Amino acid sequence: MADANALNQHFTRYDQVEKSHTYRLAEHPSDVFDEDYEIATLDFSQFLNGNDTDKAKFVEAFGTAIQEIGFSVLTGHGVDTSLYDEMHDLVIELFESLSLDEKMQFRAQRQGSVNQGYFPIEETSDIHPDQVEGWVLCRRAFDIEQIRSEMFRAEDYWPDVKYEREFRRLVLSHEQLFIPIAQAMLQSLGCDPHVYDEKLTSTNFGLRLNYYPPMSESQRQTGAGRLLGHEDVDLFTLLPAPRDEGLQVWNHSSGKWVRLQAPRGSIIINTGDYMQRISNDRLPSTTHRVGNAADGSHSSTPRISFPMAVYVWEDEILEVLPGLGEPRYEPVKAINFHTRSTSKFYGDDYAVES
Q: What global pTM score does this model have?
């Protein structure tokens, strides 16, 4: 396990896309913050319900934001935001009502590409002692349409089957956004916006439930962060705006961190490694982390988040899209790409080579 001053460049042998910048995995007193930069907040209803002119305006603004920093905030997404309040409370119930022994019965293990199940505090990854408990559920953990080789049993994935029913509501609400978000991204690149429609129909995903307990002074003194700096491995991530501060985004242009506190009920979107690969580096997989809240709430308040990472199925091929210049990357099967990248977090034997 790396110390709190470890740099991302110590682990570049795992990267499957170009990541030339350097940063400490955990927040450090020498870090510089860009207090003036504002990550774009956009009305997604322009794209979902607007005419061609409205859609074109949205695509231009969205494309500018994600090409510049890899992040944007969406309002007008059509999801009933009261659902997010219910999910927030349900995450707290899930983590606080179970003993560690009960949680460890669902200890995370790889299923396909995704390391699915429960992660104890300080064991989110092998390279840094993150101050967060996590629970990752991919499509296989939900009673929804998918290709299955065996009978679905909620109790194989959940400590109480009620959680499958409740979190399925969130999954189904977000799933309807996968294709339009991808279409807007691809259109911003000048690509066929529908080229991923079929791949994203009933595709795989990773819903991660995060419970960050209040940090003690002794924990803070170790230099450990709530969640280390990283880039997502996926196409893109949907993150309902957390109530509490702490999300920090790396600005490639300035070499500074940007604190992101999105409006309540909005969805934060960021692009990941899959997207950087197929966009030929046009859409960056942007570094982010969860650090100390500027208002000090990390010392007294649990922080809850439930991001949803959008993947393609393991046997799909990731290749640079047509029209984006000479490909910088060779085609690769998704399971190889995904597990090689995430073996950085889970150990070298996690990678699938085929």
A: 0.95
* Whole-number Å distance between alpha carbons of 196 and 182: 7
> How many angstroms separate the CA atoms of 345 and 208, rounded?
15
CB hemisphere CA count around 116 (13 angstroms): 20
User: Could you give the 3-state DSSP secondary structure of residue 159?
Assistant: coil
Domains and CATH numbers, the chain: 8-349 (2.60.120.330)
Residue with tokens 């349900």, as numbered in its chain: 90
Q: Which residues pair with 101 in a beta bridge?
A: none
List CB contacts of 156: < 8 A, sequence separation 6 or more: none
Q: 200-243 pLDDT, tens per residue?
A: 999 999 999 999 998 776 666 665 678 888 999 999 999 999 99
Query: At 220, which helix (H) or strand (E)?
Result: helix 217-221
CA-to-CA separations, 271 to 67, 264, 278, in angstroms, rounded:
9, 21, 11
What's the CA gap between 73 and 268, in Å, rounded?
Answer: 4
Write phi, then psi, for 139 (nearest 5 degrees).
-60, -30
Query: What are the Cα distances from residue 36, in Å, to 42, 202, 237, 292?
Result: 18, 40, 24, 19
Q: What is the pLDDT of residue 10?
A: 82
